[in-house]
């Protein structure tokens, strides 16, 4: 049986093939992230600026008694900060923090208000060299346009990961 991204599936196969994804926008394009990577969705706030960090590092917040680095995904991808819309959210994910560890990371995402189920195996490589943006994963043709899967663990380059999470990791030890 062949399944397209929007084809409903039933029974046990549905549970094993389809996953829930959060839809969001970068500019005019739609992207998704697997909701298994999401810890919490928060309203957009104000963040302590972090001088010396790239412009797409929106700043630092407190989250459950620990520091939360927050990055603006639109600024990372386009160089322009995310619009401060009522649909712009901070999505807290459990991100790779370096040395095999994990730590919370806040992602500012525009239009992050809808979820949809997709079959992960239906996504296909884009065919483009995205070495400058390794966080941009495979694509899916939904019939209404292409969706691209955002790879959370590839958002922060390794050298910056150490700067964002290194001091916090040392404080916990």
What is the compact description of this entry?
The chain is an alpha+beta fold. It contains three helices and nine strands, in the order αβββββαββββα. The model is unreliable at 1-12 and 169-173 (pLDDT under 50).
Descriptive report:
This protein is of the alpha+beta class and 173 residues long. 16% of the residues lie in helices and 42% in strands. The protein has three helices and nine strands, in the order H-E-E-E-E-E-H-E-E-E-E-H. Strands 1, 2, 3, 4, 5, 6, 7, 8 and 9 form a nine-stranded mixed sheet that branches. Strand 6 and strand 7 form a beta hairpin. It is globular, with a radius of gyration of 17 Å. It starts with 10 loop residues before the first helix and ends with a helix. The N terminus and C terminus are likely disordered.
Blueprint (SSEs and pairs):
Blueprint: H1 11-17, E1 19-26, E2 29-34, E3 38-43, E4 57-63, E5 66-72, H2 73-78, E6 89-98, E7 101-118, E8 136-141, E9 146-150, H3 158-172
Parallel strand pairs: 2-9, 5-7
Antiparallel strand pairs: 1-2, 1-7, 3-6, 4-5, 6-7, 8-9
Q: Give the total of beta strands.
A: 9
Which percent band covers the strand fraction? Answer: 35-45%
What level of helicity do the residues show? 10-25%
- The average pLDDT is 87
The CA-CA distance between the termini, in Å, is 52 Å
Biggest sheet architecture: 9 strands, mixed
- Helix count, DSSP H or I runs of 4 or more residues: 3
Shape: globular
The sequence of SSEs as H and E is HEEEEEHEEEEH
Task: Using the CA coordinates, give the radius of gyration.
Answer: 17 Å
Give the helix/strand class.
Answer: alpha+beta
Unreliable segments (pLDDT under 50, ≥5 consecutive)? 1-12, 169-173
């Amino acid at each position: 049986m062949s399944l397209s991204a929007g084809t409903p599936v039933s029974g046990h196969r549905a549970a094993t093939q389809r996953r829930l994804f959060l839809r969001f926008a970068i500019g005019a394009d739609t992207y998704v992230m697997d909701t298994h990577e999401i810890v919490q969705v928060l309203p957009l706030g104000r963040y302590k600026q972090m001088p010396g960090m790239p412009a797409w590092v929106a700043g630092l917040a407190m989250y459950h008694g620990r520091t939360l680095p927050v990055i603006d995904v639109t600024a990372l991808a386009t160089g322009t900060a995310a619009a401060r819309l009522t649909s712009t959210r901070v999505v807290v994910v459990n991100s790779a923090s370096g040395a095999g560890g994990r730590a919370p990371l806040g992602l500012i995402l525009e239009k992050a208000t809808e979820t949809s189920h997709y079959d992960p195996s239906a996504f296909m490589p884009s065919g483009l060299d995205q070495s400058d943006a390794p966080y941009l994963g495979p694509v899916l043709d939904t019939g209404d346009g292409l969706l691209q899967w955002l790879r959370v663990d590839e958002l922060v380059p390794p050298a910056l990961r150490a700067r964002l999470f290194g001091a916090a990791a040392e404080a916990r030890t």
